[in-house]
Specification:
homodimer, alpha+beta, Arc Repressor Mutant, subunit A, 3-stranded antiparallel sheet, 7 helices, 3 strands, 54% helix, DNA-binding, DNA-binding transcription factor activity (chains A, B), HTH_ArsR_DNA-bd_dom (chains A, B), DNA-binding (chains A, B), WH_DNA-bd_sf (chains A, B), transcription (chains A, B)
DNA sequence: AGCAAATATTGACCATCGTCGATATTGACA
DNA sequence: TGTCAATATCGACGATGGTCAATATTTGCT
């Protein structure tokens, strides 16, 4: 079971494929976690555990198609444009967002199931 | 709705009553979060977003009665006793654990629903 | 009272993180 | 080709966080 989890992680496209980790079915409340399981989940949670990134995620999630342009994300938060870009990169590297460029604009889209996966790992429904 | 949430938080016993925050029903993926909502959720997530604390939580959660003595938590993790004590305090202050002392030993118990609350805020079921 | 065991607190160190200003890159368009 | 707008990257700074050694506190026991 754990081996399956790791082989899935190896072949994944993103740095931290939270969706695949979710397939491990090792919720926080079921059994004692191993060190590497705790490391992986902590890495994903750290990516979300920031007010600016949470607001970015929620704005994108509330947008139609769960997709938003960077230009629409810079003003609502009271932080500079480089900082927004940095947070979006963190969320993308963590496997919560994908980036697609159309013209000069960059659009970030929520990866379906990524948040639900983390949610399921924290507490089984 | 938001006002109810804040009045609940004011009268709560713990510093960060995640259970009450969960009662706000403002999931990450439903609407754009306000700054203070993001601050609160980030604070709770930060408390969990650490490998050592995740392992502590999972050990306690897997124990009978979802309760464990500190003496049983010091050895499985490869960290010193003061560090374990520190992490347990962080989790307790964040509203995930309660502490009860029986004799010389300190027992930490999982607060029912606290993890589920956070989980629900990250992704609505 | 005095000792021993379990746990908490303190103070310090190093690493990581969030933010910013400045600059680089990318792409559209005249 | 040159310019402009949108976004990303870089380097730096202050703040926060995880860990430890040393010490304090609490509690049971003799």
């Amino acid at each position: 079971m754990v081996n399956i989890c790791y082989s899935l992680r190896m072949s994944a496209r993103t740095l931290l494929p939270v969706v695949d980790v979710g397939a491990c079915r090792a919720p926080l409340t079921r059994d004692a976690m191993t060190q590497s399981q705790a490391d992986d989940l902590a890495r994903s949670l750290k990516a979300i555990a920031d007010p600016a990134r949470l607001r970015l995620l929620s704005i994108i999630a509330a947008s139609e198609g769960q997709e938003a342009c960077v230009c629409d994300l810079t003003e609502p938060l009271d932080i500079g444009q480089p900082t927004v870009s940095h947070h979006l990169k963190v969320l993308t590297d963590a496997g919560f967002l994908t980036r697609s460029k159309r013209g000069t604009w960059a659009y970030f889209t929520l990866i379906p199931g990524a948040l639900a996966s983390i949610s399921r790992l924290v507490a089984s429904p």
